[in-house]
Design brief:
Order of helices and strands: EEHHEEEHHHEHEHEEHEHEHEHE
CATH architecture of the largest domain: 3-Layer(aba) Sandwich
Distance between the termini: 44 Å
Largest sheet: 7 strands, mixed
Bound molecules: zinc ion
Strand content: 15-25%
CATH topology of the largest domain: Rossmann fold
Structural class: alpha/beta
Radius of gyration: 20 Å
Shape: globular
Number of domains: 2
Number of strands: 13
CATH class of the largest domain: Alpha Beta
Strand order of the largest sheet: 8-7-6-9-10-13-12
């Protein structure tokens, strides 16, 4: 089971085959090798990357920015199981500041306001649950939550914390009133196919809440001289799809999902910052709640 790379045959968003290269850097030479070595603490074996290049392309038809090539199945497995430091990832959650939990609670309370029934009647699937912290918060708000996660270690941890956990989706049907995916779709080799699979398990009129890194301005940044890899929307190996609000809405439209405007949250005491947040929520952010047309 050797980790390798695979080409993407077409644009993950519109399936066009014609694209332009925005950036190309060898994985095994500086600055990329230096970045990967520091970020993954030297855990990537040299032979896994030798002879391959980090390449960011823009689809000539729809403008979507994505990485091509990407790791193949074995490579993805190695990345998420072995190269990423799981103990460190868990520790980050265990030592998180109160702000993170306030954010989770805020997201969940906003979702509950948009859902058609009382929390106990609402079935929520967290797709890519990780260690289960969001699922636990959703549970504490009374929702009927299931966490989907591929990594066994994370599933075991979440299960021990009382989360209902699955490693496979149920057969198609109206299983869930709400799907939540936080920082997941930027990692998926075929995000459109994954969203289709998820929506086949969504009740009519159900909600889909997707949060991805914001790729606004990445094209311009890549065109400037002196660009170097960092933890952003085109993070090497991991953030293989670079969404903007526009392309995220296009992805969702393919499944009959329409973006919802978040409820107004203006207060006289902080009107200016409130307005700024409203504009961002409505027109800019890549955190979007969608509703499927009933
Ligand atoms: Zn495209």
């Amino acid at each position: 089971m050797e980790a390798g790379f695979q080409a993407r045959q077409c644009c993950p968003l519109c399936r066009a085959e014609d694209n332009a290269t925005l950036c190309e850097l060898a994985f095994d030479e500086p600055p990329m090798a230096t970045f990967l070595d520091a970020f993954y603490h030297g855990s990537i074996p040299a032979q896994a990357l030798r002879g391959h290049s980090y390449r960011v392309v823009r689809c000539r038809r729809c403008g979507f920015i994505y990485q091509d090539p990407i790791l193949d199945d074995n490579g993805m497995q190695a990345l998420y199981q072995d190269w990423i430091d799981n103990a460190r990832s868990l520790r980050k959650k265990q030592t998180a500041k109160a702000k993170l939990f306030r954010q989770y609670a805020g997201q969940i309370q906003s979702l509950i306001r948009l859902l058609p029934g009382d929390p106990g009647q609402m079935r929520v699937l967290e797709f890519g649950m990780g260690w289960g912290y969001w699922s636990r918060m959703a549970q504490a708000h009374g929702l009927d939550v299931t966490g989907y996660e591929l990594a066994g270690e994370r599933r075991d941890y979440a299960r021990a914390m009382g989360v209902k956990v699955v490693s496979e989706l149920p057969p198609p049907g109206a299983h869930y009133d709400c799907l939540y995916a936080n920082q997941v779709f930027e990692h998926l080799p075929d995000p459109a196919a994954s969203l289709r699979e998820l929506c086949a398990r969504l009740a009519p009129g159900g909600l889909v809440y997707i949060r991805v890194p914001d790729g606004r301005g990445i094209g311009a940044r890549l065109a400037r001289r002196g660009w170097s890899p960092e933890l952003d929307a085109i993070h090497p190996l991991e953030h293989i799809n670079c969404f903007t609000r526009k392309t995220l809405i296009e992805l969702a439209a393919g499944e009959g999902l329409k973006p919802l405007n978040p409820p107004l949250r203006l207060h006289w005491g902080s009107l200016l910052s409130g307005l700024r947040r409203e504009i961002s929520d409505r027109y800019l952010t890549t955190h979007v709640v969608f509703r499927r047309e009933p």
